[in-house]
Amino acid sequence: MIVYGIPNCNTVKKSLDWLKAHQIDFEFHDFKKKGVTADKLNQWFEAFGWETVLNKKGLTWKKLSKEEQAAIDSPAKAIDYLTANTSAIKRPIIEKEGLAVLISFDEEKYNETLG
């Protein structure tokens, strides 16, 4: 299992704490340090939808002007933006056996999917 995120994110911390408490082994992929590929983003877009993967509640997105936000209106433009601005990816994203299975942290969904 791979957990994608950034270590100083509170939602990522909750997720990692939950996994550790349930003794679930995982590898952590810090996309601030390791980045993320367009192919990986496309996989996540297929699993969750591109507008879900794009974190519009975060500071990175909110720093954009209304015009810049409006210009990110397709999966291709979202990929360009997210590969350059990984902190705008909703996190964490959890992959199990190569498939994206969870995004963000919701204890009930974690129990259903991983518990």
From TrEMBL:
Name the domain of life this protein comes from. Bacteria
Protein family per UniProt: Belongs to the ArsC family.
**Protein's name in the database:** Spx/MgsR family RNA polymerase-binding regulatory protein
Q: Which organism is it from?
A: Pedobacter endophyticus
* Taxonomic lineage of the native organism: Bacteria, Pseudomonadati, Bacteroidota, Sphingobacteriia, Sphingobacteriales
